[in-house]
Amino acid sequence: MPPVTGPRIRLLAAPVVCLGLAALALSGTAAVASPVARAARNCSLPRYPGLGYFTSLSVSGTSCATGAKVAVAYYHCRTRSGVAGRCHGSVLGYKCSEHRNSIPTEIDARVTCTRGHATVIHTYQQNT
Asked: Model-level pTM?
């Protein structure tokens, strides 16, 4: 059988080259995306222990069950010094920061708690 030359070689080689480039592109994307990508996910809300309610809960790098425990533990830490109190320590090993918008009758706040790569973000509305 004579060797394949000319235009026929290009037709035979093109699919092989395309498949090779596609495989290379996919392997490079997977290697870059997997260690960096940690998608936050929204979780169902735990029952609020006081007069108010949780308005959102999302977690990244941990489970929704842990996120719910952190949100409730933060509430208990915060209300130790009164209904409008603040939590100044860590909660279940998470360091938390809170940003509030308040009026005389309620507090609306966003709390971000971090522990290593794990993040728990919850918002709440507290009647005062």
From this structure: 0.70
